[in-house]
Amino acid sequence: MPLGTLDRTPPPFFKQGPSALTKLVFFAALALFLMVADTRFRLTGPLRATVATVLHPVELALLAPVRGWIAASEYLGGLQQAREREDRALQQQAGVAERALRTEQLAAENERLRELLELRNALKVRGTAAELLYEASDPYSRKIVIDRGAKDGIVTASPVVDAAGVLGQVTRVYPLMSEVTLLTDKDAAVPVLNTRTQVRAAAFGDPGSVAAGAGMELRFMASNADLQAGDALATSGIDGVYPPGLPVGRIVGVDRRAGSTFAKVSVVPVARPDSVRHVLVLEPMAQQLPPRPEEAATSAPPPRRPARGASRPGQSDRDLGARR
């Protein structure tokens, strides 16, 4: 048989279906549709929460060897550190006792002044202890995941602090865990107060300056503003989220460029997420503040109209008798 007459097409068993280009176009359109649906209509939110709940035991099982190794290393290497800390604690005990006495005296004096001026006591912030599970794998954001979720009463916008100061804010809550956006994230912002000048400002995350020893910046600050390297920044509490007075960061550089209206102010946060293990999730201050005046006015009952013939405030009996 001549070779030109042979059928060179593969049998139906070896056919691969649609072409590679068709598959690429189909899956690209499907991915684009899912991204738009998740952004606009939040369709994949329940699915994401379900998958996160299902994978949570697997994540804990994978983290078990790492936790065991860390615990063993800390146990073996912590004995010497414990002895050194004990010696330092004994040396500092005398000074701490004196400062504690001063603190008690100042607290009692402050309480008497509050009662004298009829000021309200500060709001008591409730918190939930949590442990760091892992750091998010997204290279374009700065986020961590903690082991407390909706079943523990965690809500979005809850401040997260460690022993040094403010660490970040809860931005996504799952049933068994939560996602925390750190202050150094590009989308993070916190209102701050300069403790030296008592001037309020807003600190934003600046991931590009982490390598330079910063991580945050104060934006929209005038070039002639009273700012100095070393100024401490704390939360101002005007946003209804962060309690006032929590340490946030410290100014490390002020660049007043000639011809520019605003100065570039670099801030280093006091909290170090790379070395933290245990955090405290605080309740947002908005849940503890009293209602706004307009909300209280709408919820209050309407004033009662005086009965006919009844005297109004400021109306004398003489005027009533003249009307009769």
From TrEMBL:
InterPro entries assigned: Cell/Rod_1, Cell/Rod_MreC_2, MreC, MreC_beta-barrel_core
Skewed-composition ranges (Basic and acidic residues): 315-324
GO annotation (BP), single: regulation of cell shape
PANTHER family noted in UniProt: CELL SHAPE-DETERMINING PROTEIN MREC (PTHR34138)
Entry function: Involved in formation and maintenance of cell shape.
The keyword Cytoplasm belongs to this UniProt entry's keyword annotation: no
Provenance organism: Rivibacter subsaxonicus
Record key words, sorted: Cell shape, Membrane, Transmembrane, Transmembrane helix
Name of the protein in its database record: Cell shape-determining protein MreC
Entry keyword annotation includes Zinc-finger: no
GO cellular component: plasma membrane
Membership in a protein family: Belongs to the MreC family.
Pfam families with a match to the protein in the record: MreC (PF04085)
Location of the region described as Disordered in the Swiss-Prot/TrEMBL record: 284-324
Membrane-spanning segments: 20-37
